[in-house]
């Protein structure tokens, strides 16, 4: 940070990104240098005895050997200097690395003699146009290997240049502020991302809303980092630093709670948690409906969970192509009804209990199942979560649009992709529900889903509630940016949302990503470590956790981090009051005042947040029968900030959510048995 300037343009790399590539290439070239030196010692005297001593014989070979030896030695010195210069200074101290650009430019120019020498080696070893054969097997193998590896290394160099090439790199950072130039630049970046999507995911263009989704996601990506000079490695380093910062803040909060002798927010007493909730809000029913929402994932989830035996588990539920009934309740499945087989296997239901199953997966269109649950006398609509690229584009079409339903305020907004998915689902769902309730008129209506499926289930429920006022929704790991605050409050009476631990998606919204962008820039300016040290520390944190000494030693002035720890740090930056440094305020001015979405969206329903209980004192050494998890009723504002945590992806997986709820129920029953005994 900022981006590297070379050959009159900026690239998607920084001057401090070259430490590890230079060291790795230096090690490879050292091996090549040793091998070519051995070959020169063996072959150089022999070259004087070749059939021809001109440019088609010995002289050609001597030029290749000596040239390759000298070039490898020169490149090793250059790479050592490049690694040393790239390692200097912190991420923002670019003046300390001012020699990186000329050194890198010199290395680029040395590609030309390297290609020429490699062509000579290819002619000698593979084309048989040089009249100087090599009888020594070791030397022949070494030269051939070096030639081949050199071509591979040159191909990787070209690929690396392609990866860090910025098509809009000729634009100066100073021209990307709040001016007409900035607006034009934003449009160019949006168009560039849209073209990339159309090329990379060409098969999605056939979907009805494929191009619209491309445009939505392209606009989001362009807006998130416009007018910033961040490169991808800066974002990775910033996330590592945020992990340290957030652990430091957590430690300080616990210390304050202990000093103030505050009552813990979380509790392990399940009865206490559910003492003031309606009877239908309970963990037993939640576990039951979570199993049905997982079943909606179909055969891919079965193979994911049972890699070796998945096919055998599905085989007895498959339908022969010849035996498939014409008027099937299943639509858009393959000839053997593999998705349907997965639903039957995971739900433990018979085909007669599944009223309808649609597996049509398009952009803004999700598969779902309608199930008659006789045990709980309910019609269950299970909506599938994200499992395909089409679902990802639905997820990231994260702009807000007006959402209308009876009982909601007029200015209600909702997630655009999920709102469109709910509208499409309703068209197919309504006639199915009419048939289902004609058959089971006294049954209740329950909607359930995980992740994207949970968000769509809530929006569908809002549309259906005027017709089915007693419906209930069990939503698991619901995305944060779903619906307006007042609408979210309205859903608390009929939606139960369950989230586990550090679930990323429970905190993922446009607003939280924009705040993450803000904190990444602030944190980068606050650190006193170079980027290569941050990356090395990141690997250590992933394996062994963050040591206590790094919570303070990472920062120039740790107290500045606390000054910026506000609920909406954008306001500080808009006013130019960045206490990290004046440079940080200069880099981030005005960027954070702009929002991709004008409406702030929240998590719906009454939110039960479950966290793994931190073992204290003797519990770390002695195994006790204390509960594994603790929980509390949270509010949507608690999930407005992304947490960079080791389990932020694992806690979102449906099997981990299922295991968590199941463990709580089992421990609750075992505790009762212990009390009785």
Automatic annotation (TrEMBL):
Entry superkingdom: Eukaryota
Pfam families from the UniProt entry: Lipase_3
Domain (Fungal lipase-type): residue spans on this chain: 380-509
Main localisation: membrane
UniProt KW keywords: Calcium, Cell membrane, Hydrolase, Lipid degradation, Lipid metabolism, Membrane, Metal-binding, Phosphoprotein, Transmembrane, Transmembrane helix
Spans traversing the lipid bilayer: 26-47, 59-83, 104-126, 138-165
EC number: 3.1.1.116
Cell location: Cell membrane
Statement: the UniProt record of this protein carries the keyword Transmembrane helix: yes
Top EC class for this record: hydrolase
SUPFAM superfamilies hit by this protein: alpha/beta-Hydrolases
PANTHER family membership: DIACYLGLYCEROL LIPASE HOMOLOG-RELATED, DIACYLGLYCEROL LIPASE-BETA
Protein name: sn-1-specific diacylglycerol lipase
The species this protein was found in: Vanessa tameamea (Kamehameha butterfly)
